[in-house]
Amino acid sequence: MYGAVGILMNDLLSTKKGGNPIYVITPLKGPEVKVESPETFAIGECVVVHFSKNSVERPDVGLHNASISKSTDCVPIAKTLDGQGIQQLQKSGANITQSQNIEFLFYFPTIEAANRVANALSLHGFVTKVQPTEKDNHFSVIAQKSFIPTESTLAGFRLLFNDMAMTEHGQFDRWQLAETQ
Questions:
Q1: What is the pTM of this model?
Q2: Closest to 139 (Cα-Cα) out of 113, 120, 164, 116
Q3: Is 102 found in the same domain as 18?
Q4: What span, in angstroms and rounded, lies between the C-alpha atoms of 119 and 99?
Q5: CATH number of the structural domain spanning residue 89
Q6: Which of 31, 58, 89, 101 has the smallest count of CB within 10 Å of its CB?
Q7: Domain residue limits at 83
Q8: Are residue 64 and residue 82 in the same domain, yes or no?
Q9: Three-state DSSP class for 9?
Q10: Total domain count for the chain?
């Protein structure tokens, strides 16, 4: 049995009638995979994809003879930053047991890099906007998504977004509540 740690980006990509949900997972290393699972997972959750020599990629369900399970391998020190952010949301009166519209902010040296990251995030259900920054010749990406903010979900996104930004010589800056909820 083999395993790959990744971040769950989309849930319920498609389901067969009466079948299990199919999840899209972006591994920390390698291409994204689709896995059907009877278990329920949250967007942004850190998971392990378990597969074997008998696992086969099928267009209708993704990896056949594979499974996913929760993992704690994606939660470095960033988890404490996100926990503090959630505490601030609670203090400001936000109901964190309900879905919130969260913005993620990135900065990139070129519009091409910003567009590549914005397009990748759009494929995973984020609403994105690329715009020039006010001070220098850089570009920002604002990516929004509605979900129930949990410490592990936000820490998983932070880990993935830091990696995405570094790949394009940019920076993942922070997350915050979107101005329009």
A1: 0.62
A2: 113
A3: no
A4: 23
A5: 3.30.70.970
A6: 31
A7: 78-177
A8: no
A9: strand
A10: 2
Asked whether 144 and 37 are in contact (CB, 8 A), the reply is no
- Judge whether 143 and 118 are in contact, CB under 8 Å: yes
Pull the structure tokens for residue 53: 């020599």
Distance between CA atoms of residues 162 and 78, nearest Å? 10
Give the DSSP H or E segment for 102.
strand 100-108
- Note whether 167 and 87 are same-domain residues: yes
Last residue of a domain, one of 70, 103, 121: 70
Per DSSP, 110 falls in state: S
**How many whole angstroms separate alpha carbon 154 and alpha carbon 72?**
13
Convert the pLDDT of each residue in 128-180 to its tens digit. Answer: 999 999 878 899 999 999 988 888 788 888 888 988 999 999 999 999 988 76
Query: Does one domain contain both 122 and 56?
Result: no
